[in-house]
From TrEMBL:
The gene is aspC_1. It is an enzyme of class 2 (transferase). GO terms for molecular function: L-aspartate:2-oxoglutarate aminotransferase activity; pyridoxal phosphate binding. It holds the Pfam family Aminotran_1_2. Keywords: Aminotransferase, Transferase. This is Aspartate aminotransferase. Residues 53-358 form the Aminotransferase class I/classII large domain. SUPFAM superfamilies: PLP-dependent transferases (SSF53383). Its EC number is 2.6.1.1.
Protein backbone atom coordinates (compact mmCIF):
# COMPACT_ATOMS: atom_id res chain seq x y z
CA UNK A 1 0.00 0.00 0.00
CA UNK A 2 1.33 3.43 -0.98
CA UNK A 3 0.16 6.21 1.31
CA UNK A 4 0.79 9.96 1.40
CA UNK A 5 2.55 11.47 4.40
CA UNK A 6 0.35 12.49 7.31
CA UNK A 7 0.85 16.25 7.14
CA UNK A 8 -0.39 17.06 10.63
CA UNK A 9 1.95 14.58 12.33
CA UNK A 10 4.92 15.61 10.18
CA UNK A 11 4.30 19.27 11.06
CA UNK A 12 3.97 18.51 14.78
CA UNK A 13 7.04 16.24 14.75
CA UNK A 14 9.09 19.15 13.36
CA UNK A 15 8.12 21.71 16.01
CA UNK A 16 6.15 20.21 18.92
CA UNK A 17 9.14 19.28 21.05
CA UNK A 18 11.04 22.50 20.33
CA UNK A 19 8.52 25.34 20.40
CA UNK A 20 8.15 26.93 23.86
CA UNK A 21 4.45 27.80 23.52
CA UNK A 22 2.33 24.97 22.12
CA UNK A 23 -1.09 26.23 21.11
CA UNK A 24 -2.39 23.50 18.81
CA UNK A 25 -2.37 20.02 20.32
CA UNK A 26 -5.66 18.24 20.74
CA UNK A 27 -5.03 16.39 23.99
CA UNK A 28 -5.70 17.49 27.56
CA UNK A 29 -3.29 18.12 30.39
CA UNK A 30 -1.71 14.79 31.27
CA UNK A 31 -1.25 13.03 34.62
CA UNK A 32 1.83 11.59 36.27
CA UNK A 33 1.74 7.83 36.90
CA UNK A 34 1.88 8.60 40.63
CA UNK A 35 -1.27 10.70 40.46
CA UNK A 36 -3.09 7.88 38.69
CA UNK A 37 -1.91 5.22 41.13
CA UNK A 38 -3.16 7.29 44.06
CA UNK A 39 -6.65 7.21 42.58
CA UNK A 40 -7.01 3.43 42.83
CA UNK A 41 -5.33 1.21 45.44
CA UNK A 42 -6.65 -2.02 43.92
CA UNK A 43 -5.26 -1.37 40.42
CA UNK A 44 -1.99 0.04 41.76
CA UNK A 45 -1.43 -3.21 43.69
CA UNK A 46 -2.33 -5.27 40.61
CA UNK A 47 0.08 -3.23 38.52
CA UNK A 48 3.00 -4.15 40.79
CA UNK A 49 2.30 -7.83 40.18
CA UNK A 50 1.59 -7.54 36.47
CA UNK A 51 3.57 -9.93 34.30
CA UNK A 52 4.98 -8.23 31.22
CA UNK A 53 3.92 -10.97 28.84
CA UNK A 54 1.86 -10.77 25.66
CA UNK A 55 -1.84 -10.17 26.23
CA UNK A 56 -5.03 -11.26 24.43
CA UNK A 57 -4.91 -9.82 20.87
CA UNK A 58 -8.48 -8.56 21.31
CA UNK A 59 -7.36 -6.84 24.55
CA UNK A 60 -7.50 -8.03 28.15
CA UNK A 61 -10.98 -8.93 29.32
CA UNK A 62 -10.82 -6.67 32.42
CA UNK A 63 -10.06 -3.60 30.24
CA UNK A 64 -12.77 -4.47 27.71
CA UNK A 65 -15.15 -4.81 30.65
CA UNK A 66 -14.24 -1.31 31.96
CA UNK A 67 -14.60 0.15 28.44
CA UNK A 68 -18.00 -1.43 27.87
CA UNK A 69 -19.23 0.66 30.83
CA UNK A 70 -18.75 3.75 28.62
CA UNK A 71 -21.56 2.45 26.37
CA UNK A 72 -25.17 1.57 27.03
CA UNK A 73 -25.49 -1.31 24.60
CA UNK A 74 -22.03 -2.78 23.99
CA UNK A 75 -20.59 -5.87 25.69
CA UNK A 76 -16.92 -6.64 26.41
CA UNK A 77 -16.88 -9.19 23.53
CA UNK A 78 -17.79 -6.35 21.17
CA UNK A 79 -14.70 -4.31 22.10
CA UNK A 80 -11.22 -4.59 20.60
CA UNK A 81 -8.27 -2.83 22.22
CA UNK A 82 -5.87 -1.03 19.87
CA UNK A 83 -2.48 0.63 20.01
CA UNK A 84 -3.98 4.09 19.80
CA UNK A 85 -7.04 5.09 17.83
CA UNK A 86 -4.57 5.52 14.98
CA UNK A 87 -4.15 1.75 14.72
CA UNK A 88 -7.92 1.41 14.82
CA UNK A 89 -8.47 3.56 11.74
CA UNK A 90 -5.83 1.59 9.85
CA UNK A 91 -6.93 -1.93 10.73
CA UNK A 92 -10.69 -1.38 10.58
CA UNK A 93 -10.60 0.33 7.17
CA UNK A 94 -8.35 -2.45 5.89
CA UNK A 95 -10.60 -5.16 7.31
CA UNK A 96 -13.81 -3.66 5.91
CA UNK A 97 -13.02 -1.80 2.70
CA UNK A 98 -11.94 -3.00 -0.70
CA UNK A 99 -10.65 -1.36 -3.85
CA UNK A 100 -13.60 0.08 -5.78
CA UNK A 101 -15.83 0.64 -2.74
CA UNK A 102 -17.29 4.11 -2.42
CA UNK A 103 -17.03 5.95 0.89
CA UNK A 104 -18.30 9.36 2.02
CA UNK A 105 -16.06 11.24 4.47
CA UNK A 106 -16.85 14.26 6.61
CA UNK A 107 -14.52 17.08 5.52
CA UNK A 108 -12.20 18.58 6.80
CA UNK A 109 -10.96 15.62 8.76
CA UNK A 110 -8.10 13.98 10.57
CA UNK A 111 -6.17 12.91 7.48
CA UNK A 112 -6.12 9.10 8.02
CA UNK A 113 -9.94 9.03 7.89
CA UNK A 114 -9.67 10.13 4.27
CA UNK A 115 -6.22 8.88 3.31
CA UNK A 116 -6.49 5.22 4.30
CA UNK A 117 -9.65 4.51 2.25
CA UNK A 118 -8.03 6.40 -0.65
CA UNK A 119 -4.84 4.31 -0.33
CA UNK A 120 -6.92 1.10 -0.32
CA UNK A 121 -8.31 2.23 -3.68
CA UNK A 122 -11.77 3.39 -2.62
CA UNK A 123 -13.62 6.18 -4.37
CA UNK A 124 -13.82 8.90 -1.73
CA UNK A 125 -16.44 11.66 -1.68
CA UNK A 126 -15.75 14.59 0.63
CA UNK A 127 -18.79 15.66 2.64
CA UNK A 128 -17.90 19.26 3.34
CA UNK A 129 -18.86 21.05 6.54
CA UNK A 130 -20.19 24.55 5.97
CA UNK A 131 -18.04 27.14 7.71
CA UNK A 132 -20.62 29.86 7.08
CA UNK A 133 -23.21 27.77 8.97
CA UNK A 134 -20.93 27.18 11.97
CA UNK A 135 -19.53 23.99 10.41
CA UNK A 136 -22.86 22.20 9.94
CA UNK A 137 -23.20 19.23 7.59
CA UNK A 138 -26.01 18.98 5.09
CA UNK A 139 -27.76 15.59 5.31
CA UNK A 140 -29.22 16.06 1.81
CA UNK A 141 -25.67 15.97 0.44
CA UNK A 142 -25.19 12.55 2.05
CA UNK A 143 -28.50 11.27 0.70
CA UNK A 144 -27.81 12.60 -2.80
CA UNK A 145 -24.30 11.14 -3.01
CA UNK A 146 -25.08 7.55 -2.05
CA UNK A 147 -24.27 5.18 -4.93
CA UNK A 148 -24.83 1.46 -5.45
CA UNK A 149 -21.30 0.77 -4.22
CA UNK A 150 -21.34 3.10 -1.18
CA UNK A 151 -20.03 0.95 1.64
CA UNK A 152 -19.29 3.37 4.45
CA UNK A 153 -19.79 6.88 5.75
CA UNK A 154 -16.99 8.19 7.96
CA UNK A 155 -17.70 10.80 10.59
CA UNK A 156 -15.81 12.34 13.50
CA UNK A 157 -17.98 13.42 16.41
CA UNK A 158 -16.96 15.61 18.29
CA UNK A 159 -14.87 16.90 15.44
CA UNK A 160 -11.20 17.62 14.79
CA UNK A 161 -10.32 20.40 13.89
CA UNK A 162 -13.50 22.45 14.45
CA UNK A 163 -14.79 21.19 17.83
CA UNK A 164 -18.18 20.77 16.16
CA UNK A 165 -20.66 18.38 17.76
CA UNK A 166 -23.62 16.79 15.95
CA UNK A 167 -27.11 17.12 17.37
CA UNK A 168 -29.01 14.01 18.48
CA UNK A 169 -31.50 14.69 15.70
CA UNK A 170 -28.72 14.72 13.08
CA UNK A 171 -27.27 11.43 14.35
CA UNK A 172 -30.72 9.79 14.36
CA UNK A 173 -31.37 10.85 10.78
CA UNK A 174 -27.91 9.75 9.66
CA UNK A 175 -28.45 6.31 11.18
CA UNK A 176 -31.89 6.05 9.55
CA UNK A 177 -30.47 6.77 6.09
CA UNK A 178 -27.50 4.41 6.62
CA UNK A 179 -29.87 1.65 7.79
CA UNK A 180 -32.15 2.08 4.80
CA UNK A 181 -29.19 1.94 2.38
CA UNK A 182 -27.26 -0.73 4.34
CA UNK A 183 -24.16 1.44 4.80
CA UNK A 184 -21.56 1.14 7.56
CA UNK A 185 -21.01 4.15 9.79
CA UNK A 186 -17.45 4.55 11.03
CA UNK A 187 -17.68 7.07 13.83
CA UNK A 188 -14.43 8.41 15.22
CA UNK A 189 -15.45 9.33 18.76
CA UNK A 190 -12.02 9.91 20.28
CA UNK A 191 -13.16 13.32 21.57
CA UNK A 192 -16.26 11.93 23.27
CA UNK A 193 -16.77 13.10 26.88
CA UNK A 194 -15.33 16.54 26.08
CA UNK A 195 -18.75 18.11 25.39
CA UNK A 196 -19.05 21.47 27.20
CA UNK A 197 -22.61 20.60 28.16
CA UNK A 198 -23.07 16.89 28.88
CA UNK A 199 -26.71 17.14 27.83
CA UNK A 200 -25.52 17.64 24.25
CA UNK A 201 -23.55 14.37 24.15
CA UNK A 202 -24.92 12.18 21.37
CA UNK A 203 -25.23 8.40 21.58
CA UNK A 204 -22.21 6.39 20.55
CA UNK A 205 -22.95 5.03 17.06
CA UNK A 206 -22.36 1.43 18.13
CA UNK A 207 -25.00 1.84 20.86
CA UNK A 208 -27.70 2.59 18.30
CA UNK A 209 -26.72 0.90 15.03
CA UNK A 210 -25.51 -2.68 14.40
CA UNK A 211 -23.41 -1.53 11.44
CA UNK A 212 -22.01 1.38 13.44
CA UNK A 213 -18.41 1.26 14.62
CA UNK A 214 -17.32 3.61 17.42
CA UNK A 215 -13.67 4.50 17.91
CA UNK A 216 -12.42 5.64 21.32
CA UNK A 217 -9.07 6.60 22.86
CA UNK A 218 -7.17 7.40 26.06
CA UNK A 219 -5.37 10.27 24.35
CA UNK A 220 -7.78 13.19 24.25
CA UNK A 221 -9.96 14.15 27.23
CA UNK A 222 -8.12 11.65 29.44
CA UNK A 223 -4.78 13.26 28.49
CA UNK A 224 -3.06 9.88 28.42
CA UNK A 225 -1.80 9.71 24.84
CA UNK A 226 1.51 8.20 25.97
CA UNK A 227 -0.27 4.97 26.88
CA UNK A 228 -1.05 4.50 23.16
CA UNK A 229 -4.33 2.79 23.92
CA UNK A 230 -7.49 3.11 21.86
CA UNK A 231 -10.41 0.82 21.20
CA UNK A 232 -13.31 0.16 18.85
CA UNK A 233 -16.73 -1.28 19.50
CA UNK A 234 -17.85 -3.57 16.71
CA UNK A 235 -21.05 -5.62 16.84
CA UNK A 236 -20.51 -7.73 13.73
CA UNK A 237 -18.61 -10.90 14.72
CA UNK A 238 -17.05 -11.49 11.30
CA UNK A 239 -15.76 -7.90 11.08
CA UNK A 240 -14.39 -8.22 14.62
CA UNK A 241 -12.60 -11.43 13.60
CA UNK A 242 -11.08 -9.72 10.54
CA UNK A 243 -9.94 -6.70 12.58
CA UNK A 244 -8.18 -8.88 15.15
CA UNK A 245 -6.60 -10.94 12.43
CA UNK A 246 -5.38 -7.78 10.59
CA UNK A 247 -3.81 -6.62 13.87
CA UNK A 248 -1.47 -9.65 13.64
CA UNK A 249 0.38 -7.63 10.99
CA UNK A 250 0.53 -4.36 12.93
CA UNK A 251 1.05 -4.88 16.68
CA UNK A 252 -0.30 -8.39 17.54
CA UNK A 253 -1.49 -7.08 20.89
CA UNK A 254 -1.18 -3.95 23.03
CA UNK A 255 1.19 -3.17 25.89
CA UNK A 256 0.10 -5.01 29.06
CA UNK A 257 1.19 -2.09 31.28
CA UNK A 258 -0.70 0.46 29.21
CA UNK A 259 -3.79 -1.73 29.25
CA UNK A 260 -3.78 -1.86 33.04
CA UNK A 261 -3.21 1.89 33.50
CA UNK A 262 -6.00 2.52 30.99
CA UNK A 263 -8.37 0.31 32.99
CA UNK A 264 -7.47 2.26 36.13
CA UNK A 265 -8.09 5.57 34.34
CA UNK A 266 -11.41 4.47 32.90
CA UNK A 267 -12.63 3.27 36.26
CA UNK A 268 -11.66 6.67 37.72
CA UNK A 269 -12.84 8.64 34.71
CA UNK A 270 -15.12 11.01 36.59
CA UNK A 271 -12.19 12.47 38.49
CA UNK A 272 -9.92 12.64 35.42
CA UNK A 273 -12.47 14.11 33.04
CA UNK A 274 -13.74 16.57 35.66
CA UNK A 275 -10.27 18.02 36.15
CA UNK A 276 -9.56 18.25 32.43
CA UNK A 277 -12.92 19.76 31.51
CA UNK A 278 -12.37 22.34 34.23
CA UNK A 279 -9.10 23.39 32.54
CA UNK A 280 -10.69 23.40 29.08
CA UNK A 281 -13.67 25.51 30.18
CA UNK A 282 -11.50 28.04 32.03
CA UNK A 283 -9.36 28.38 28.88
CA UNK A 284 -12.46 28.74 26.75
CA UNK A 285 -13.46 31.78 28.81
CA UNK A 286 -10.05 33.31 28.07
CA UNK A 287 -10.50 32.55 24.38
CA UNK A 288 -13.94 34.15 24.29
CA UNK A 289 -12.38 37.40 25.55
CA UNK A 290 -9.39 37.08 23.23
CA UNK A 291 -11.44 36.56 20.08
CA UNK A 292 -13.88 39.31 21.05
CA UNK A 293 -11.02 41.76 21.52
CA UNK A 294 -9.45 40.89 18.15
CA UNK A 295 -12.56 40.18 16.11
CA UNK A 296 -11.43 42.66 13.45
CA UNK A 297 -8.43 40.36 12.79
CA UNK A 298 -9.65 36.86 13.66
CA UNK A 299 -12.86 34.96 13.00
CA UNK A 300 -13.90 32.32 15.52
CA UNK A 301 -16.65 29.74 15.48
CA UNK A 302 -16.90 28.72 19.12
CA UNK A 303 -16.58 24.92 19.46
CA UNK A 304 -19.23 22.86 21.26
CA UNK A 305 -16.80 20.23 22.54
CA UNK A 306 -13.07 19.32 22.67
CA UNK A 307 -9.98 21.39 23.45
CA UNK A 308 -9.57 22.44 19.82
CA UNK A 309 -10.99 25.02 17.42
CA UNK A 310 -10.39 26.23 13.87
CA UNK A 311 -10.30 30.05 13.77
CA UNK A 312 -9.47 32.08 10.69
CA UNK A 313 -7.33 35.11 9.93
CA UNK A 314 -9.15 38.02 8.29
CA UNK A 315 -6.02 39.85 7.08
CA UNK A 316 -4.15 39.42 3.84
CA UNK A 317 -1.58 36.72 4.61
CA UNK A 318 -1.25 33.05 3.79
CA UNK A 319 -1.74 30.83 6.85
CA UNK A 320 1.64 29.16 6.30
CA UNK A 321 3.44 32.50 6.49
CA UNK A 322 1.41 33.60 9.50
CA UNK A 323 2.14 30.35 11.39
CA UNK A 324 5.87 30.58 10.61
CA UNK A 325 6.06 34.23 11.62
CA UNK A 326 4.21 33.66 14.92
CA UNK A 327 6.49 30.73 15.71
CA UNK A 328 9.66 32.59 14.77
CA UNK A 329 8.88 35.83 16.60
CA UNK A 330 7.09 34.55 19.72
CA UNK A 331 7.63 30.78 19.84
CA UNK A 332 3.88 30.10 19.59
CA UNK A 333 2.98 26.95 17.65
CA UNK A 334 -0.38 26.86 15.86
CA UNK A 335 -1.35 24.31 13.23
CA UNK A 336 -1.81 25.88 9.76
CA UNK A 337 -5.09 24.86 8.12
CA UNK A 338 -3.41 23.49 4.98
CA UNK A 339 -2.55 20.30 6.90
CA UNK A 340 -6.32 19.63 6.81
CA UNK A 341 -6.58 20.30 3.05
CA UNK A 342 -7.46 23.49 1.26
CA UNK A 343 -7.76 25.75 4.32
CA UNK A 344 -5.36 28.61 3.72
CA UNK A 345 -6.84 31.07 6.21
CA UNK A 346 -7.76 28.78 9.12
CA UNK A 347 -5.52 27.45 11.86
CA UNK A 348 -6.13 24.87 14.57
CA UNK A 349 -5.65 25.86 18.15
CA UNK A 350 -5.48 23.54 21.17
CA UNK A 351 -6.41 24.79 24.62
CA UNK A 352 -6.44 21.76 26.89
CA UNK A 353 -3.29 22.69 28.79
CA UNK A 354 -2.55 24.63 31.96
CA UNK A 355 -0.29 27.18 30.26
CA UNK A 356 -2.90 28.54 27.84
CA UNK A 357 -3.01 31.94 29.59
CA UNK A 358 0.72 32.35 29.12
CA UNK A 359 0.49 31.26 25.47
CA UNK A 360 -2.28 33.77 24.78
CA UNK A 361 -0.16 36.54 26.28
CA UNK A 362 2.58 35.74 23.73
CA UNK A 363 -0.01 35.67 20.93
CA UNK A 364 -1.27 39.09 22.04
CA UNK A 365 2.27 40.47 22.04
CA UNK A 366 2.58 39.28 18.44
CA UNK A 367 -0.67 40.96 17.49
CA UNK A 368 0.19 44.30 19.05
CA UNK A 369 3.73 44.32 17.64
CA UNK A 370 2.87 43.13 14.13
CA UNK A 371 -0.79 43.49 13.25
CA UNK A 372 -1.99 46.66 14.94
CA UNK A 373 -0.72 49.78 13.24
C1 LIG B 1 -10.01 12.42 15.00
C2 LIG B 1 -8.82 11.66 15.48
N1 LIG B 1 -8.84 10.32 15.43
C3 LIG B 1 -7.80 9.59 15.84
C4 LIG B 1 -6.67 10.19 16.34
C5 LIG B 1 -5.51 9.33 16.80
O1 LIG B 1 -5.59 9.20 18.17
P1 LIG B 1 -4.52 8.38 19.04
O2 LIG B 1 -3.42 9.33 19.34
O3 LIG B 1 -5.27 7.97 20.25
O4 LIG B 1 -4.07 7.24 18.24
C6 LIG B 1 -6.59 11.57 16.41
C7 LIG B 1 -5.38 12.24 16.92
O5 LIG B 1 -5.20 13.43 16.85
C8 LIG B 1 -7.70 12.34 15.98
O6 LIG B 1 -7.72 13.67 16.04
Amino acid sequence: MKIRELELERYLAKYEFLAPYIFCTSDSESFEINQLLEMDVEYSEKLKKLKLSYVDPQGSEYLREEISSLYSNVSSEEIVILSGAAEGIFVIMNALLEKGDHVIVQWPCYQPLYEIPAAIGCQVTKWEMEENSKWELDLDFFRDNIKNNTKMVIINNPHNPTGYLFSTEFVTQLVNIAKEKNIWIFSDEVYRFSEYDEKNRTSAISDIYDKGISLGAMSKVFGLGGLRIGWASIKDKEVMRKVISFKDYTTICCSSTSEMISALAIRNRNQIIKRNMHIIKANLDLLDDFFKKYNHLLEWVRPKATAIGFPKIKFDMDIKDFSNDLLEKKGVLILPGYVFGDYNKNFRIGFGKLNTKEVLKKFEEYISENLIK
